[in-house]
């Protein structure tokens, strides 16, 4: 007849295994949780005529025809965003702007040959648009 001996408290190996299993079970956010994060509509825009090189948080466009814009959805407070416009040799004038949930929060003017303008904004400004229920 054999008897088993149980140790209390459990061994560190057993505790490590339970801890790891609990951590792995809770690591991923479900799609429902990701959809419930408050987001902001961030619009990057460049007004002017002709073409320009444009760089924004999330992409670039070379020789983009002006006027130009794109809108993305970002979680509230995700990170600061920026937009840069660089005119070509022919110069001219272009205004870059960033709007958060339809409210312009930053703008800057580029002018002249190889003129450059940069806009910066935070996704924490103002009241966030709540996700649809």
What does the model show?
With 133 residues, this protein is an alpha+beta fold. It has a domain at 39-121: Sandwich (Immunoglobulin-like), CATH 2.60.40. It has 2 helices and 8 strands. Strand 6 and strand 7 form a beta hairpin. It is elongated, with a radius of gyration of 25 Å. Residues 1-34 form the signal peptide. Keywords: Signal. This is Ig-like domain-containing protein.
Poorly predicted sequence stretches spanning 5 or more consecutive residues: 2-8, 12-32, 127-133
Give, in order, the helices and strands. HHEEEEEEEE
Question: In the CATH scheme, what's the topology name of the domain at 39-121?
Answer: Immunoglobulin-like
Helix share bin: 10-25%
Radius of gyration: 25 Å
Classify the secondary structure makeup into a structural class.
Answer: alpha+beta
Distance between the termini: 62 Å
Q: Which CATH class of the domain at 39-121 applies here? A: Mainly Beta
Going across the major beta sheet, what is the strand order?
A: 4-1-6-7
Rounded mean pLDDT score: 78
Overall spatial form: elongated
Sheet-strand content, in percent, reads: over 45%
Question: What is the strand and helix layout of this fold?
Answer:
Layout: H1 12-26, H2 31-35, E1 39-48, E2 51-56, E3 59-65, E4 68-75, E5 81-87, E6 93-100, E7 103-111, E8 116-121
Antiparallel strand pairs: 1-4, 1-6, 2-3, 2-5, 5-8, 6-7
Produce a short descriptive summary.
With 133 residues, the protein is of the alpha+beta class. It has helices spanning 12-26, 31-35, and strands at 39-48, 51-56, 59-65, 68-75, 81-87, 93-100, 103-111, 116-121.
């Amino acid at each position: 007849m054999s008897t088993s001996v149980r140790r209390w408290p459990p061994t560190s190996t057993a505790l490590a295994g339970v801890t790891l299993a609990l951590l792995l079970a809770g690591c991923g956010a479900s799609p429902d949780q990701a959809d419930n994060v408050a987001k902001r509509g961030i619009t990057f825009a460049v007004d002017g005529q002709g073409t320009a090189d444009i760089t924004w948080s999330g992409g670039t466009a070379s020789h983009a025809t002006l006027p130009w814009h794109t809108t993305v959805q970002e979680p509230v407070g995700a990170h600061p965003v920026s937009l840069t416009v660089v005119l070509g040799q022919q110069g001219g004038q272009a205004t870059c702007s960033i709007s958060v949930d339809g409210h312009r929060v930053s703008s800057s003017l580029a002018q002249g040959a190889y003129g450059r303008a940069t806009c910066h904004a935070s996704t924490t400004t103002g009241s966030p648009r709540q996700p649809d229920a």
